[in-house]
Amino acid sequence: MRKAPIRLESKRLVLRPFSVADADDMFCNWGGDPEVTRFMFHDAAASVSDARSRIRGWMLTCGSDEVSIWNYLAVMLKDGNCQIGAVFYAHTNTDARSAEIGYEFGRQWWRQGFATEALGVLLKYLFNVKRLNRVTGVHDTRNPHSGAVMLKCGMRLEGTMRSERLLKGELIDRSHYAILADEYFQQESLQQESLQQESLQQI
Fold first, then answer.
1. Residue 157: CATH number of its domain
2. Are 143 and 120 in contact (CB under 8 A)?
3. pLDDT higher than threshold 70 for residue 200
């Protein structure tokens, strides 16, 4: 049975599976920029053809529940239907119902809250639809802005591993974050209560 395609929305964004037609935007807007992939384990796409090849791979795995298989979603601006980056997740443990998340955005859209908004939508999907119990995220300590995004989404810093991985020829320290389902739903409940109180005050 074919799975229904993933389509997630927020106030400003739409998250959806990639298509081959996205190759030009992916390469020009974010995927071909070495600065965007500076702290990632993969390099920037070398050409539109390279971007197209990567997208074809993402199309094959999107929606997978297999451990360590990354699911990539394009992040689109509702205003103008412009592609600004990607979010992705991979199940890490079936028994523990856990997954790891990640994200990449074009420099033009940094520090405007888009990564936080997109991650918030992805977390909502993973906890409400995929019924996960734990979602984790990791970042190179030289890229603290990535950690700030996770903190804004309610994830907690669990620790920093020194010289944990080899990235592009250099041993790096990485900070690990996580959020559990009960923490997520508690925060969601508090946010709804706050919105209700604001609405009552405006009456």
1. 3.40.630.30
2. no
3. no
